[in-house]
């Protein structure tokens, strides 16, 4: 029986080494068998100028490393592809089959023969510059950041103002890291609040430190994309119907994980954006499963478990997943349990390694019905047997924002069926967070913002007031609370909160603008005017603010200045019915009835159900006849 087993094994290995041209056993060659495998699975990192330590494009490149290639592929250390087979199918999978691994082993064992040069496939081409051609917009920090020579991993953020003057739609994004050897990976966050600029101002030089950023916003913006990059990944190209929106005043924060090389080196990365004229028709959203608050891992514990779950309140399609932990992470599992009891795998990684983390797009979107339970399970190994443990001997590790702390995350990108479902999902996420962390500022602020967007003002005000009580110095949340109070017809309370937000952050343009428009609505144009003038001076491309400035001038009977502001507003946004209406009123006050009729007619075309505009138009037409 032993001899039979050995014979069968020898026959299997011989079969693996048999080429596909006629069935005769031949030695694999570089040109005929190895080059196609290297070009597909290795060259994206191992090319001249790439992040790999050596190139694997030419025969000479590969021959010098033949035994090393056989060894690391035989251990399945290379090519790096952490997800376990059979637990989800993903775009760009780099699993080598047993037969392909044997081909590489047999080629190295035979002395790495070159083979027929005529059989050599075309080598992939890599550019040191932009892979997609010249971007429509390039964002780059004015001065480089110097990565220190020594120490642990560095997590650094650069704030890059977008400089767009109108709403743009981004179909693709590319990052040039400046020095790919120093950049382990990077994320891009969109900041409309100015929070990144404030943090940048507090830190010397370009940028500021931090790993996992939480950026507050005064409005709920549910369109969420995986803006993730790591060496060897292609440029990020969105689906044609899912270009992401970039508004004026938005900063892009480049959140980088840097690894010192042993000497001080400058790095000056750039982000390239490629625009589309086609707005998105489908808007994805990121759902975060996490439970960092449960992370308190004793030294020596090799099986510390952290879980989280979310019941989907609406049907969705899952597009991709992004697991994240640090050095103690060992196993991560993501599943979807459907209402019928069946379970679908989202992902499983049985040997987590932070340096190979990445975003995994599903090969086919996964449709999940309402009531599905998304679940995350992490196992952490804080024992001395964990070769990646940063502490010798092991130490107690808690959740936190440093590399030596831990995190337990699983991001799931979903596509809701209806636009309004995004608010329902956000509400479910924040309520689930409050169950884990009662009184949590982020959850209270975000839940209040969602409730305000849904018109549930009493609930919104209560949650936002809780958030303000938790963090009284948050200008953003005070501004959101004030807008809810104004919508609930409590203008006096709203004014107090807007004023308090400006006391906390005198440069907060949104609060200044809201304060001005609230005063205007209270028929206090003289008090509103300084705020509106300051906002428009700082943001001359803000059509809405110019329109309100024009209204303030008109209420003060400063008609020439009012007309100038309103006309400037309409050059930016010709579809502003209120600006046309106010210009009509000014023309009528000057007895310029043909102009008044034209402006009222334009306002009526834009807003045909507005009775005030209809009445003014009828009166102007009657006056014109007289």
Notes on the protein architecture:
By secondary structure, the protein is an alpha+beta fold. 36% of the residues lie in helices and 20% in strands. The chain contains 18 helices and 22 strands. The protein has helices at residues 2-16, 30-41, 59-64, 66-74, 98-109, 195-201, 421-436, 441-453, 457-470, 475-487, 491-504, 509-521, 525-538, 543-555, 559-572, 577-589, 593-606, 611-625, and strands at 137-140, 145-147, 154-161, 168-176, 183-191, 208-209, 228-229, 236-237, 244-246, 251-258, 265-267, 270-276, 285-290, 296-297, 304-311, 316-324, 329-337, 343-349, 360-368, 373-380, 397-398, 409-416. Strands 1, 4, 8, 9 and 12 form a five-stranded antiparallel sheet that branches. The protein has a five-stranded antiparallel sheet with strand order 6-3-10-5-7, covered by helices on one side. A four-stranded antiparallel sheet has the order 13-22-16-19, with helices on one face. β17 and β18 (343-349) form a beta hairpin. α13 (525-538) packs antiparallel against α14 (543-555) and α15 packs antiparallel against α16. It is elongated. The chain starts with a helix and ends with a helix.
């Amino acid at each position: 029986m032993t001899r039979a087993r050995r014979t069968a094994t020898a026959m299997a290995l011989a079969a693996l080494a048999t080429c596909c041209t006629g069935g005769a056993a031949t030695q694999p060659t570089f040109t005929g068998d190895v080059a196609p495998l290297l070009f597909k699975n290795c060259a994206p990192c191992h090319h001249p100028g790439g992040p790999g330590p050596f190139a694997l494009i030419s025969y000479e490149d590969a021959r010098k490393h033949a035994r090393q290639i056989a060894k690391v592929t035989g251990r399945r250390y290379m090519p790096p592809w952490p997800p376990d087979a059979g637990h989800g199918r993903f775009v760009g999978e780099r699993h080598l089959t047993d037969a392909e691994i044997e081909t590489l082993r047999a080629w190295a064992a035979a002395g790495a023969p070159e083979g027929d040069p005529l059989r050599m496939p075309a080598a992939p081409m890599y550019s040191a510059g932009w892979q997609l051609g010249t971007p429509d917009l390039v964002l780059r920090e004015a001065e480089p950041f110097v990565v220190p020579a020594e120490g642990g991993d560095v997590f650094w953020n650069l704030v890059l103002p977008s400089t767009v003057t109108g709403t743009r739609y981004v179909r693709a994004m590319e990052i040039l890291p400046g020095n790919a050897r120093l950049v382990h990976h990077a994320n891009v966050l969109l900041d409309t609040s100015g929070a990144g600029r404030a943090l940048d101002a507090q830190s010397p030089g370009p940028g500021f430190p931090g790993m996992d950023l939480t950026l507050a916003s005064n409005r709920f913006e549910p369109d969420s994309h995986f803006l993730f990059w790591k060496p060897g990944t292609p440029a990020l190209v969105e689906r044609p119907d899912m270009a992401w929106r970039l508004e004026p005043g938005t900063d892009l924060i480049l959140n980088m994980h840097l690894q010192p090389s042993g000497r001080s080196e400058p790095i000056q990365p750039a982000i390239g954006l490629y625009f589309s004229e086609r707005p998105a028709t489908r808007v994805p959203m990121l759902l975060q499963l996490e439970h960092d608050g449960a992370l308190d891992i004793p030294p020596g514990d090799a099986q510390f478990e952290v879980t989280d779950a979310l019941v989907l309140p609406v049907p969705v399609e899952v597009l991709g997943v992004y697991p994240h932990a640090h050095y103690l992470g060992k196993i991560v599992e993501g599943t979807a349990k459907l209402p019928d009891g069946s379970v679908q795998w989202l992902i499983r990684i049985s040997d987590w390694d932070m340096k190979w983390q990445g975003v995994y797009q599903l090969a086919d979107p996964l449709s999940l019905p309402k009531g599905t339970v998304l679940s995350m399970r992490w196992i952490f190994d804080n024992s001395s047997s964990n070769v990646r443990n940063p502490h010798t001997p092991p130490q107690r590790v808690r959740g936190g924002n440093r590399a030596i702390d831990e995190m337990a995350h699983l991001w799931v990108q979903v596509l809701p069926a209806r636009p309004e479902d995004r608010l329902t999902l956000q509400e479910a996420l924040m309520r689930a967070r409050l169950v884990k962390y009662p009184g949590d500022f982020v959850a209270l602020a975000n839940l209040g913002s969602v409730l305000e967007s849904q018109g549930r003002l009493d609930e919104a005000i209560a949650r936002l007031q809780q958030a303000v009580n938790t963090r009284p110095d948050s200008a953003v949340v005070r501004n959101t609370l004030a807008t809810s109070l104004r919508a609930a017809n409590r203008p006096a309370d709203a004014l107090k909160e807007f004023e308090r937000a400006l006391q906390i952050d005198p440069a907060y343009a949104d609060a200044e603008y809201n304060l001005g428009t609230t005063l205007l609505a209270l028929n206090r144009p003289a008090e509103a005017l300084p705020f509106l003038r300051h906002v428009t001076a700082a943001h001359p491309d803000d059509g809405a603010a110019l329109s309100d400035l024009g209204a303030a001038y008109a209420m003060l009977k400063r008609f020439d200045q009012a007309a100038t502001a309103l006309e400037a507003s309409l050059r930016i946004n010709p579809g502003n019915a209120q600006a046309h209406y106010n210009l009509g009123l000014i023309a009528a006050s000057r007895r310029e009835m043909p102009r008044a009729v034209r402006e009222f007619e334009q306002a009526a075309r834009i807003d045909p159900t507005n009775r005030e505009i209809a009445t003014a138009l009828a009166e102007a037409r009657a006056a014109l006849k007289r």
